[in-house]
Amino acid sequence: MAREIKSSQAQRRYPRVEGPFDADHLNAPRTPVLIYNLNLGGGFVNFGHEPPMGASLKLRIDLPREGPITVDAETVYRDTTGIAVRFVDLDRDSAARLARTIDSLVERAF
Question: pTM for the complete prediction?
Answer without folding.
Answer: 0.82
